[in-house]
From TrEMBL:
Keywords: Arsenical resistance. Residues 4-140 form the Phosphotyrosine protein phosphatase I domain. GO terms for biological process: response to arsenic-containing substance. This is Phosphotyrosine protein phosphatase I superfamily. The lineage of its organism: Bacteria, Pseudomonadati, Thermodesulfobacteriota, Desulfovibrionia, Desulfovibrionales. Signal peptide: none annotated.
Amino acid sequence: MSKLRILFLCTGNSCRSQMAEGFARALKPGVVEAYSAGVVKHGLNPLAVKVMAEAGVDISGQASKTLDELPLREFDWIVTLCGHAAENCPYFPGQARRAHRGFDDPPTLAKGAASEEEALVHYRRVRDEIRAFVEALPDSLED
């Protein structure tokens, strides 16, 4: 059986989609060929890198990218991880199926944090929710 090509799409490809790509590569290497992109490019979030490292997944070598920078355009699934991406997801050729799995945005939640440790609480919660979603792939894609 060939791997499922999954694109995790978010607004800025800085945090949630990067986490999903990292977990898919680490936890589902024989099942999923993972990619991530953003509607725009915000750069890789250093706190996302930090909490993923805590979970044993190194995403520091991943790069924030837009859809135009992806090496391919044909996917089995396009998974939007935020409402903005779901509303602005462009057309993709081929047979790509779409799924929306919304997760809170850690940078937005952490805006009022008094310390990095307080901010990391939000990043860790969302990281763990994304891990649970990825662990259940591909079943978690079916509605």
